[in-house]
Sequence to fold (136 residues):
Amino acid sequence: MNTPETTNSWIIYRMLPNFQRLPVAQFSSRSEAESSLKVIRQLLPNTELILAFEIGLENPTTEITQPSAKKANLETSVNQELLKIFLISSRPVVSRVIHSLHCHNFACVSDWSPLVPTHNSGEVMSILIKYFAADS
Fold:
């Protein structure tokens, strides 16, 4: 019998009316989550964002982003470098770029965060976080 995998993660949420929240990005490390939250707050100064530590999430929803290449996927002896890509534009442009990067085998569509509206009318943002082996 398969048991669902539970995970603990740091999640950035955008606060919505009536105490609702929209997941923006998910991280395995607090330091990565805090540095990303700082950047997002600079990009969206009028948006209420919180950072939460979620314990034992079972089957996280597809709305929550999972980094495409986790640290565990790289050998521990390899230096790792973190890359964060923020796409900010209209919904059609951001979607088109995400799909184009997928077609070029850079990142899966599901590796990106959900499209989050910015404070500018008609503008959305999506985030991708990837790990690469750093050159020695």
Observations:
- The CA atoms of residues 5 and 34 lie 25 Å apart.
- The chain has two helices and six strands.
- The first strand starts at residue 6 and ends at 15.
